[in-house]
Design brief:
Order of helices and strands: EHHEHE
Radius of gyration: 23 Å
Largest sheet: 3 strands, antiparallel
Helix content: 40-55%
Distance between the termini: 57 Å
Structural class: alpha+beta
Number of strands: 3
Strand content: 15-25%
Number of helices: 3
Length: 102
């Protein structure tokens, strides 16, 4: 054994990495977009089943808004835009918003 060097572990304080905030994609009810179309958009953009899409659409219909999905901010914004664009192309004012999850 060469020398009696004791290596003491350095105590470093790592900056606490905050997990990125999750964002909610919200479906906003309107009086113009047909229910079937809303369900179709939820299935196409958010990969929901017919049943789940229908349930989310009915929640928005009754409550005014419904949470569609909770995910990373960039995904939430991309999906919301994709869904809005799909509706615009079909001539509907369907609206999706994103907001940080509390």
């Amino acid at each position: 054994m060469a020398g009696n060097t004791v290596i003491a572990p350095k105590t470093t304080t790592k900056p606490k990495l905050e997990r990125p905030k999750l964002y909610k994609v919200m479906l906003v009810n309107d009086d113009y977009t047909p229910r079937e179309f809303v369900t179709m958009v939820l299935k196409a953009v958010f990969r929901m089943s017919e049943e789940t899409g229908h349930r989310v659409m009915m929640t928005a219909h009754r409550m005014g808004v419904a949470v569609v999905v909770v995910c990373a901010k960039d995904i939430a914004e991309t999906k919301a835009k994709e869904a809005i664009d799909l509706a615009k192309e079909a001539g509907f004012p369907l609206m999706f918003t994103t907001e940080p999850e509390e």
